[in-house]
C-alpha cells in the first residue's frame, strides 16, 4: 500500500509522520484481514491517507474470490474452448460473405491474418494475468499497466463496444423479423407510425427485457449455450442450402477491391471480438497454463468457420449477397426459415450476457453496500433504460453493415489488437526481447491503421445513407 523510499530524513517531524502513516496502514491491513477471515462482503476499515473506496472495492473482490475460487477454477480444456468459441462467433459470421464479396478473395488473407493476430493478443492477455493474481478482468489489466487512467480508458472502450454491439444485434433482429413475418401486418392504434417489423422488434425486446432483472447473473449462463447452438445452426443451414437448396455456387468473386478494404476490415475485426471476457475464462480454468492452447484451438476453429462461410456465401449469391447471409437465402426453403429464426433468437440470448460485465462492475463499484433486492432493482432499471435506448437507436439507424463496421473499427480493434499489445509492452518492458517488441509495435500500428481508415469509411457510408433517405423522402 505504500512504497518505501531510501531517503535520509533529517527532519524528525517528517520521520514521525511517515511512521504514523505506516502504522495506520498496518492497522488497516490487519482490520481487512480480520474481515476477510470472517467472510464478510465488505470492510469499513479506514485509512485517511488511502483511497478508501478503491481499497474497500479490492477487499470486497478478494473476499468474493476466496469464496468463489473452489467453484470458479473448474473448467476443463474442452469447456474453456467451448466458452471462448461461444464468445467469438455471433454476428460476425453473418457479414463475412458480404465482406469477402466487396473486398475480393484476396481480402480473405486479412480475415485469416486477423485471426492469427487476435489469437496472439489473447495469449498476451493471459501473460498479463499471470503477473498479478489480483488481476481479474480486462480493466484490471489496464490498471496494472497504466493505473487509474488505464482502467478508465479501457472501461470506456469496453462499455462503448457493448453498447454499439447491442445496437447491431437489435438491427439484425429487426431485419430478420421482417423476413420471418414477410406479408404479415401488425398494427396498434397507439403506435400507428411504426411498421410491422418495428412493432415485432419492440415486442421481441420486451420479451428479452426480464433477463436483465435476474438476481443471480450466473443463472443466465445457459444463454451462452443457446447462442452457440444458434450460430452453428446458421452455418449448417447455409451449407444445406448450397448442397440441397438448388442454388449453384458458381458466382465469380473479384480478386481485390482496394477501396472497400477500410470498411470491410471493420466487419472482419468485429468477428474476433471477445477479449473482454477472456480473463474470466482464464480464471475459471483448472490449469491456466493451457490458456494459450485454448486460444489457438478456438481461434483456429473460428477462423476456419468464418473463411469457409465467407467463400460459400460469396460463391452462392455473388454481388447480390446481403450484409447478413440469412437475408440472401432463397425464400420458401425450410433451411432459410431455420436460419432466420436462429438469427432472430441469437440477439435475444445476447442482451443479458452483453450487459453482464457492466452489471458486475456497477455492483462492485457502487452497489456493494446495498441489499441484494436493492441491487437487483437498480441493476434492472438501468439495464432496461439502456436497452430501450438501444432499441430506439436501432430502429432509427437501420444500417447493419455500417454500424457493425463502425463498431469494429472504432472500438473493437482497440480492444483486441491495440490494448493487449500496449499492456504487454508496458508490463513486460524489462523482459521483452527486441523481436517481440517489434511484433507488438507492428500490431499496434496495424490496429491504428485499420481503426482510423475503417472509422472514416464507415462514417462516410453511414452519413451517405442518411442523406440518400432524406433526399428521397
Automatic annotation (TrEMBL):
Membrane topology per record: Multi-pass membrane protein
Occurrences of domain Amino acid transporter transmembrane (ranges): 74-457
Keywords assigned by UniProt, alphabetized: Amino-acid transport, Membrane, Transmembrane, Transmembrane helix, Transport
Location(s), subcellular: Membrane
Coiled-coil positions: none
Top-rank lineage group of the source organism: Eukaryota
Molecular function GO labels: L-amino acid transmembrane transporter activity
Record's keyword annotation contains Transmembrane helix: yes
A GO term from the CC aspect: vacuolar membrane
Residues annotated as transmembrane: 81-100, 106-126, 152-171, 191-213, 225-249, 261-282, 294-318, 338-360, 381-400, 406-425, 437-456
UniProt main location, coarse: membrane
Cross-referenced Pfam families: Aa_trans
PANTHER family, A to Z: AMINO ACID TRANSPORTER, AMINO ACID TRANSPORTER TRANSMEMBRANE DOMAIN-CONTAINING PROTEIN
UniProt protein name: Amino acid transporter transmembrane domain-containing protein
Organism whose genome encodes this protein: Ambrosia artemisiifolia
Amino acid at each position: 500500500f505504500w512504497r518505501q523510499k531510501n531517503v535520509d530524513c533529517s527532519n524528525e517531524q517528517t520521520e514521525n509522520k511517515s511512521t504514523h502513516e505506516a502504522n495506520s496502514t498496518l492497522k488497516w491491513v490487519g482490520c481487512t484481514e480480520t474481515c476477510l477471515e470472517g467472510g464478510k462482503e465488505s470492510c469499513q476499515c479506514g485509512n485517511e491517507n488511502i483511497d478508501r473506496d478503491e481499497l474497500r472495492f479490492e477487499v470486497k473482490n478478494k473476499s468474493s474470490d476466496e469464496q468463489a475460487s473452489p467453484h470458479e477454477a473448474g473448467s476443463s480444456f474442452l469447456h474453456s474452448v467451448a466458452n471462448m468459441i461461444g464468445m467469438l462467433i455471433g454476428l460476425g459470421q453473418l457479414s463475412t460473405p458480404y465482406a469477402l464479396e466487396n473486398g475480393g478473395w484476396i481480402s480473405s488473407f486479412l480475415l485469416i491474418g486477423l485471426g492469427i493476430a487476435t489469437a496472439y493478443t489473447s495469449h498476451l492477455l493471459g501473460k498479463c494475468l499471470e503477473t498479478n493474481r489480483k488481476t481479474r478482468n480486462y480493466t484490471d489489466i489496464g490498471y496494472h499497466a497504466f493505473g487509474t487512467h488505464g482502467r478508465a480508458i479501457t472501461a470506456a472502450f469496453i462499455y462503448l463496444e457493448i453498447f454499439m454491439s447491442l445496437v447491431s444485434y437489435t438491427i439484425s433482429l429487426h431485419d430478420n423479423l421482417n423476413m420471418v413475418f414477410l406479408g404479415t401486418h401488425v398494427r396498434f392504434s397507439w403506435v400507428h407510425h411504426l411498421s410491422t417489423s418495428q412493432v415485432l422488434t419492440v415486442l421481441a425486446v420486451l420479451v428479452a427485457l426480464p433477463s436483465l432483472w435476474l438476481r443471480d447473473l450466473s443463472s443466465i449462463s445457459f444463454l451462452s449455450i443457446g447462442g452457440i447452438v444458434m450460430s452453428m445452426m446458421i452455418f449448417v443451414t447455409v451449407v444445406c442450402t448450397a448442397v440441397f437448396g438448388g442454388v449453384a455456387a458458381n458466382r465469380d468473386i473479384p480478386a481485390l477491391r482496394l477501396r472497400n478494404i477500410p470498411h470491410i476490415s471493420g466487419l472482419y475485426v468485429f468477428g474476433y471480438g471477445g477479449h473482454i471476457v477472456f480473463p474470466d475464462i482464464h480464471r475459471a480454468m483448472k490449469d491456466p497454463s493451457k490458456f494459450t492452447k485454448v486460444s489457438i484451438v478456438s481461434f483456429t476453429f473460428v477462423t476456419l468457420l468464418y473463411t469457409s462461410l465467407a467463400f460459400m456465401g460469396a460463391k452462392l449469391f455473388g454481388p447480390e449477397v446481403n450484409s447478413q447471409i440469412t437475408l440472401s437465402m432463397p425464400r420458401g426453403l425450410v433451411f432459410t426459415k431455420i436460419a432466420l429464426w436462429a438469427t432472430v433468437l441469437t440477439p435475444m440470448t445476447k442482451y443479458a450476457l452483453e450487459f453482464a460485465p457492466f452489471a458486475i462492475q456497477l455492483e462492485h463499484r457502487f452497489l456493494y453496500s446495498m441489499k441484494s433486492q436493492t441491487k437487483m432493482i437498480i441493476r434492472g432499471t438501468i439495464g432496461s433504460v439502456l436497452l430501450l435506448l438501444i432499441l430506439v437507436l436501432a430502429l432509427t439507424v437501420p444500417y447493419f453493415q455500417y454500424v457493425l463496421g463502425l463498431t469494429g473499427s472504432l472500438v473493437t480493434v482497440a480492444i483486441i489488437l491495440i490494448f493487449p499489445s500496449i499492456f504487454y509492452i508496458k508490463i513486460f518492458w524489462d523482459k521483452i526481447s527486441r523481436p517481440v517488441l517489434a511484433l507488438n509495435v507492428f500490431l499496434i500500428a496495424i490496429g491504428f491503421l485499420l481503426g482510423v481508415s475503417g472509422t472514416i469509411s464507415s462514417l462516410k457510408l453511414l452519413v451517405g445513407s442518411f442523406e440518400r433517405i432524406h433526399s428521397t423522402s
